[in-house]
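Figure 2 data, in text form.
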Amino acid sequence: MDREILLLFKQKVIQRSYQHILDKLNEFEVTERSAQESAANDTKSSMGDKHETSREILQQEREMNGRRMAEAIRQKEEFERILPDAQFSKIQTGALAETSLGWFFFSTALGILNVENDKVAVISIASPIGQSLKGMKAGDSILFQGKSILIKNII
């Protein structure tokens, strides 16, 4: 595949990944606002033990949402350090690799994202497969969990 086409695809992967992070952050903010409204409404009616149980559940949900939001903020900050025009000859953070198993983008762990008509695994270089592929170049291959993986292209 032509390097210019690969670079354009990589930029689309980066845009899609960043939008995914922003969407998650927005979702967490909406959840937090909803929880705050529920807490405000809940204080208006007190029903003894049932009221306390409800408040405790709400507090636990807010804490979990807060942890998830903090993780999404960390992912956003980590992602913002990636240079969209950087090109690589080996697998490292910020690299997009086309393999015999499909596309991998090495940044922060976001899962499988659809970009154009392709599925891209957006993963951390610290993940098990990331560690196995780290430093590899186009043409290299490895055996990972019983599957042969050929590196076709890296950008």
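Caption note: The first helix runs from residue 3 to 42.
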